[in-house]
Amino acid sequence: MIEEKDERRDVSFDEDQLIRWLIDENIDEFRKDFLSMHAYDQAKFYVKVGPDIRKIMYHFLSPEEMAEIYEAIELDDEEIEYFIKEMDPNYAAKMLSYMYTDDVVDVLTELDEDDRDSFLELMDEEMAEEITELMGYEKYTAGSLMTTEYVSIQENSTVRSAMNVLRREAPNAETIYYVFVVDENHRLTGVISLRDLIVAEEDTLIRDIMNERVVYAKVTDDQEKIAQIFKDYNFLAFPVVDEDLVLQGIITVDDIIDVMDEEASDDYSKLAGISDIDDIDAGPFKAAKQRLPWLVMLLFLGMITASLMGQFEATLEKVALLALFIPLISGTSGNSGTQALAVVVRGIATGEIDEKSKLKMIFREMGTGLITGIACGLIVVLVVFLWKHSLMIGMLVGTAICCSIFVATIAGSFIPLLIHKIGIDPAVASGPFITTLNDITSILIYLGLATMLLGQL
Amino acid sequence: MIEEKDERRDVSFDEDQLIRWLIDENIDEFRKDFLSMHAYDQAKFYVKVGPDIRKIMYHFLSPEEMAEIYEAIELDDEEIEYFIKEMDPNYAAKMLSYMYTDDVVDVLTELDEDDRDSFLELMDEEMAEEITELMGYEKYTAGSLMTTEYVSIQENSTVRSAMNVLRREAPNAETIYYVFVVDENHRLTGVISLRDLIVAEEDTLIRDIMNERVVYAKVTDDQEKIAQIFKDYNFLAFPVVDEDLVLQGIITVDDIIDVMDEEASDDYSKLAGISDIDDIDAGPFKAAKQRLPWLVMLLFLGMITASLMGQFEATLEKVALLALFIPLISGTSGNSGTQALAVVVRGIATGEIDEKSKLKMIFREMGTGLITGIACGLIVVLVVFLWKHSLMIGMLVGTAICCSIFVATIAGSFIPLLIHKIGIDPAVASGPFITTLNDITSILIYLGLATMLLGQL
Hints:
With 457 residues, chain A is mainly α. Helices cover 65% and strands 6% of the residues of chain A. In chain A, the strands form 2 sheets. In chain A, strands 1-2-3 form a 3-stranded mixed sheet. A 3-stranded mixed sheet of chain A has the order 4-5-6.
């Protein structure tokens, strides 16, 4: 009765059997098995088979059934366009009209403008209008994430009529676990959960039991902020209003899980210096194409380091020993800079660092840089002294490490805050970038000090 | 009617007024305002005020009301212990008995064993047993995340009786939006959503409308795997069973959001070389304490680099120019290694890289390393030739960069896969660690090549 559990829990169906039924045009057997699968597994099958098999699927499944697959699908941008173009345009338009508006928007934004317009023309006028409106919202805002399939009700309705509305809307609404309460101008005034509804007396007025302290977002709010609200308040869905508090749509928790996943990947990949981390399946050429821009940019920054060091060639010629500690110093300063950067970028992303705490943060990092700098510096003095038996070299390298860590820690916290201030995503000041900048300052400090002390070395 | 929206949406209440009411012992006004607040806002207030104010709160709020606050609270480990000890033990025990078992477990694991046992003794025997059992599951497994407050029903019940069970359990169950269907041995056989229940005919048998292809986890499954299932299938809750398929508990989406947040922070902070990134409020000493272990460890690894370079001191003495390119070469190899590492670590974490695709991944990375290596190498040959007018030096640096990138990319993908294979979290092969290892190989390649070619330089 229960599927056999497997390691990855994704082969709970006999793929080859399904393909055989499709090829043999055994529509009944295929539909019986396929439609009992979870939409996510259906989507995995759909994406995996070739275009010929997919074309049979379009004949065997109704646009409504295909819409379920598209609700569950997770595709690369290019694939979506490719798949949609496999379909008969009328079939595709019908399928889209069965999908939740937020998912339709996701699909349509991947098509070029002509295709998009022709689909909108084939769709029901009211839906086409709603979708055009949703597509007008800027990317990464609440407006672009929300769906318009919510359940709303007037304040003076009874619990009974609310339950009837829910029953009627259940097949279409994205969630029926919250009912949003509005006044005569469709302005949001409250919220009530299905949980509260099913335990309430049928004649109770919604007004008397609704929660009036409803937390909501504006259509222009950033998606990271929305994600934070979900994390804090543990909502399953969340209303979005315009400037006049008129209810425009809702955001559901499944969309937010995708956003969180995206944002986490995004910050992480920027820290590693890659533009897009998700493409595990890409070939070596595509992977190289994704990574080369950063590598080459950093290569040129590295050239600046090299040319600055050129100024100290005379010093290096006199005391070749100095070169041995260059990787140590630049590495350590890079590491401490990345640590500070990671804390600050993550703090900005989660909203824990705001205007008020910025200054406190920088002072904190100055203190941290000083402590870690002195600690590492002392260790280095000792180790170098024991190794090279020269207190002078030990003091030089230790001082350079101490100063480098101090500067790198401040830079690692200050630069992302500065970049954020001028309205750019602070994650662009990513790990390798700040590391290379810290390379330059640390080597300048080290070789500068060495040149000053050259007589004593 | 609706709260005024503010930038961070967290001051939807007059904090000072609440404190004044507490100090004036105006219990009615305090309760009226405080209890209308969302539990998350209540928790923020509770955490923010001092111990004296909190002590008044314990008198003004029932253990049941305080339990709501503790459901919503997000605390550092040390704070929880501190707060619980402020309370009268009987009050605390009562409060715990009103909380969902998974949250009780979270609180109790922060206390020392004696305190824990004394609380368990004060609690209802059945609950104490359940909690002891939950506390027995290993950290980061499905068992440690799940709660036992779910709604279950027999297959041969009707929709009407299911709805009655739901109404009865609604105040206690963590979610009532799924009803889990079990056989006479309490083995999981299906699931049905409240959405399906409210649109079904009252006399329908659950068996006839339940979903039999229920996706579930075992108590021993890792939390990352659970998070992946939530991401894929968009569930709101998810059953957990033991080896015999007997239903043990459920995991709800809000817990998974916390897990995802934790895991993302965790991978990110490891890539940056910090043990714990969340502590924005820590002072400089605490921050330094968190960061120093990594810095010092890397410092000693850096010393190895320096001592290996010491082998080439003679070469460096003869051609001091060579030193200029050391940061460039080690930096570039570090960057490409981190890129490969980030892709692989993330791929392992999300489950996209499994046993089968491992080898493919390594071959892909070899290809990527070769392409990026040759591309960067050629650029460097050209730039160094134009700058230093020496084709020999250009070729040397270019070849070293090309080989370093190739080796670093393979190491960046191979090492985490290897570490994962032997059962360790691959994120420990974090950015700075692999960077420092790559430093060593790249410098060996560069100075080794240089020494071989010394006659021509």
